[in-house]
User: What shape does this take?
Amino acid sequence: MDNIELWQSVLAQMQFHISRANFATWFQNTEIASRENEKITISVPNAFSKEWLGNKYNKPILKILREIDESIKDLDFVIQPKQGKNINFSSIQYNEKPDDIQLKFEEFKVNKDTNLNPRYMFENFVVGSFNELAHAAALAVSDNPGFTYNPLFIYGGTGLGKTHLIQSIGNKISDNSKKKKKVKYISSEKFVSGIVSAIRTNSMEVFKASLAPLDVLILDDIQFIAGKTKSQEEFFHVFNSLYEKNKQIILSSDRPPNAIAELEERLKSRFEGGMIADVSLPDYETRLVILKTKLQEKNSALAEEILDYIASNVKKNIRELEGALNKLLAYEKINQLDLASAKNLLKGFIFSPFDVANSKKIIETVAKFYNLEEKKLYESTRRKEIVRPRQVAMFLLRKELKYSFPAIARKFGGKDHTTAIYAYKKILQENEENNKLTQELNLIKQRIYSG
Ligand code: ADP
Ligand code: MG
Assistant: This one.
């Protein structure tokens, strides 16, 4: 068996263990780069894949390899462009019912009992470091609703997959229980208008009774309840009665509970009593993976340079990414699509960071995030509570706007440009090591880009 055959058979087995989306994400463009005695080296296209395969799939890959050839003892990954020919992905059978793959998204209908859209599945949800925690929490809740994390609270900017993720939980619980578990998905807007009309028609008890038998209640965009006192009061009772029966509650919001203004304290502390996880912005690599996953679902393809163009330029959120892709695919059905026409078609989507994230916006957002007056950032002081936010602002000017170091130094009152270089390097390095900083940077970027 040569290396190509060996890797083919590893892939053939791997696919039974993971979803189609993840398989495409992590195994496309991989191959065996070399085999020296007991050690196999797999080549992967980028650092991102290297990290994920190394961390998450190392064990199962090695196990499968050893089942084929037990002299193999060790596994390693290198970043290296693929040399051999592509593995024919279309010949691979995925761990899904074939009907599911054939179904076009448009054909999915919202379920009348649960309000869930079956198109939202874990299988087509791409996971990366930007949503890893939320995804893991969502899976845990699906496997053991009511007992792992209750409530589960997912937050993040618009178009980043909150609805997709929380509906996937609902679909999975419903399927796993052969539809025995009663799941209901309600947008908070609908929920509030339900309460309002129940109050008006004196039918609050009926409204509550309709929620009482639920095993899982999913409320989307709960920030909508802010400032609505009466709805909050009724929701508090609904929440408690489900919670006491160990029924699962899942919430999404555009911000964490402690940042929802005009939310009653007692609700805030209920929301904080379970698991809180965020979804943030995917980076370039992940945007590319998402595009490729969507293409596979639609059984379509686009030239690599066009995909690269979309992934490099459509950065606002995943919804826009999908919109851009759909627009190009629609055009491509009747025309020849080249890079020039793609650029033209995507003008409305291309979101130049310079439009939204100018330096003023970045500095403003950083100051606000750290609760500082903006002018403090310009002061020459070594106080830690100011130095750190200033370094973050310098870092973002470089990273997001490609400012030169001297230009950054000028912005901050004519400091020496080595100060800017130092700040950039420091934050860059800490970002690798410090989860809290990564979270902060993500939240700040979300705020900058959400307009
Ligand atoms: P939100 O509720 O946060 O505004 P949605 O869940 O509506 O965002 O997501 C917007 C679109 O992007 C949906 O079509 C969704 O399927 C898609 N999407 C979001 N996140 C992902 C992901 N991680 N993988 C695949 N598709 C995603
Ligand atoms: Mg949503």
